[in-house]
Design goal:
This protein is an alpha/beta fold and 300 residues long. It has helices at residues 3-9, 28-37, 51-61, 83-93, 107-117, 129-145, 158-169, 220-227, 232-252, 270-282, and strands at 16-22, 41-43, 67-71, 97-104, 149-152, 177-185, 196-199, 257-264, 288-294.
């Protein structure tokens, strides 16, 4: 049964198993990371003997783990035996949609990539890089023939390969930029995971307004006060305009996650109000999903 036929007949509850294999240096790690970003549960360097037990586990899990990918390759050494037979066994014993993705590249490209990282080929032994590549091609030839999809990565960089995987396996999963808007207080330290940081301490601090001090930027009186200050609204609007082409570039480069941090002194008033207002604007941008995190709210 072809990939498209199998896809058209599966029920909505049926789960997916993707076996990623191919030439060493062709981008298996990049593919694994791209699949994880798409919500797949990825198992790396699985011995072929463990394919059947993993499939049984996936069948029992069902909808709890709807997408499982496993990377199977010659790194398994003695445990990498009869891979094509192991794949056929899996296909014949599960109700899941099982697909094999084979990653390919030319000898010249593989040699260059190995030389760049200064690592030997896993099958090189006492020979040359080309000897190891030739042994691997021979060992994987039957598995390549049994593959559902072959991607030649010779002319692809890691971003282009990740994009190719996203286009092929995203299905209905959100593939834009998932943005975390984080408010924080500078007195508690900069967020270590922030991609961009903005400082809104140029705005008057509601802390010094007695009736506003006990409230937070989530409360309307504080939010109204902050946004009414000179420079507040222009900052929000212009910062959103700055971020829009950034997110468009992130999508082109396959960067799926971004953390934008907005800081004030304690992370209670100004930054919280600005983050909430900025989130409303960003949610209107195509290809952008927004999550708000108020890191230091409640610490005082």
């Amino acid at each position: 049964m072809s990939d498209s036929d199998q896809a058209s007949t599966r029920s909505p509850q049926q789960h997916d198993i993707l076996i990623v294999t191919g030439m060493s240096g062709a981008g298996r790690s990049t593919v694994g990371k791209a699949l994880e970003d798409l919500g797949w549960y990825v198992v790396d360097n699985l011995p072929t003997q463990m394919l059947a037990p993993l499939t049984e586990l996936a069948d029992r899990a069902g909808e709890k783990i709807p997408k499982i990918a496993t990377v199977v390759d010659v790194r398994g050494g003695r445990f990498f035996t009869d891979p094509e037979q192991a794949v056929e066994q899996v296909r014949s014993t599960t109700s899941a949609r099982v697909r094999v993705l084979f990653l390919e590249a030319t000898d010249a490209v593989l040699v260059r990539r190995f030389e760049q990282v200064r690592r030997p080929h896993p099958l090189q032994a006492e020979g040359t890089l080309l000897d190891g590549i030739a042994r691997e091609r021979a060992r994987l030839s039957a598995l390549r023939e049994a593959s559902d999809l072959v991607i030649d990565t010779s002319d692809l960089n890691i971003h282009q390969l990740a994009n190719a995987v996203t286009e092929r396996f995203a299905d209905d999963h959100f593939v834009g930029v998932q943005v975390t808007l984080m408010s924080f207080g500078f007195k508690y330290g900069l967020p270590a995971d922030a991609d961009m940081v903005a400082d809104v301490r140029f705005l008057p601090n509601p802390y010094w307004v007695p009736e506003l001090r006990p409230h937070t930027g989530l409360d309307k009186p504080v939010s109204d006060y902050v946004l009414a200050q000179p420079g507040a609204r222009p900052f929000v609007d212009r910062y959103a305009s700055v971020l829009e082409p950034v997110f468009e570039g992130y999508q082109r480069e396959n960067k799926r996650h971004a953390t934008i941090a907005i800081g004030c002194t304690g992370g209670k008033h100004r930054s919280v109000a600005i983050v909430a207002e900025l989130a409303n604007i960003l949610r209107g941008m195509p290809g952008v999903a927004v999550r708000v995190k108020n890191r230091d709210l409640g610490r005082e």
